């Protein structure tokens, strides 16, 4: 049986967009309207806005120079609209838009329903599992609601603690938003930890320098 080695390349999306999806004349990102990518006969690509501006300045001429390679290009009778779109750039824009699209978590029991998260009860569910009226006692009795295990307490403890919250106003948000909030909190805490580590490193470095200087002074005195 033959085998094939597949190499995976990791690409930074922002760097990729800056290098391949940005007009080389105005350095603006391509889009589907006034910054639509236009393909020139020399194979370079510029946005529609820059092309319109260049052709406006060449009203007395039948040609213009590519702003990138300076090749002389004939101006078609239809003006900027006659230049073909850069299909590869447009396909890359569509691919990038798909890549950046938010992933919406769906319920495993009701695949068409978006997952919700109750911050009061610490529960994940969907509108079909829960219905329009959100109540704590339903959480405890309904196995379709999934308790979120935070790693510090088991699921049973969480369910028991949620039953004591009866009568509270429940703050329900989409699970996607809850994930983003958790990510932001984790990044913030990571930033704080990094700052503390940097301060500790500076303190240790300063203390080592002080000890080194004191040692050098003692050695000189002993001589």
From TrEMBL:
Residues 23-70 form the RING-type domain. CDD domains: RING-HC_PML_C-V. Pfam families: zf-RING_2. Keywords: Metal-binding, Zinc, Zinc-finger. It comes from the Eukaryota. One of its GO terms (molecular function) is zinc ion binding. The keyword Zinc-finger applies. Signal peptide: none annotated. This is Tripartite motif-containing protein 2/3.
């Amino acid at each position: 049986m033959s085998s094939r080695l597949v190499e995976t390349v990791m690409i930074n999306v922002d760097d990729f967009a800056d290098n391949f999806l940005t007009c080389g004349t105005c350095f603006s990102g391509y889009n589907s309207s006034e910054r639509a990518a236009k393909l020139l006969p020399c194979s370079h690509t510029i946005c529609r806005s820059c092309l319109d501006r260049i052709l406006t300045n060449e009203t007395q001429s039948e040609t213009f120079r590519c702003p990138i390679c300076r090749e002389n290009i004939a101006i078609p009778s239809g003006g900027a609209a006659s230049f073909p779109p850069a299909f590869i750039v447009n396909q890359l824009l569509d691919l990038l838009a798909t890549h950046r699209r938010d992933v919406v978590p769906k319920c495993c029991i009701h695949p068409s329903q978006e997952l919700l998260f109750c911050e009061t009860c610490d529960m994940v569910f969907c509108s079909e599992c829960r219905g329009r009226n959100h109540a704590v006692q339903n959480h405890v009795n309904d196995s379709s609601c999934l308790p979120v295990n935070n790693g510090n307490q088991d699921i049973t403890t969480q369910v028991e603690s949620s039953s004591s919250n009866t009568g509270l106003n429940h703050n329900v948000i989409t699970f996607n938003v809850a994930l983003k909030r958790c990510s932001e909190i984790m990044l913030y805490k990571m930033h704080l930890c990094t700052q503390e580590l940097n301060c500790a490193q500076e303190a240790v470095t300063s203390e080592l320098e002080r000890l080194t200087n004191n040692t050098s002074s003692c050695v000189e005195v002993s001589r």
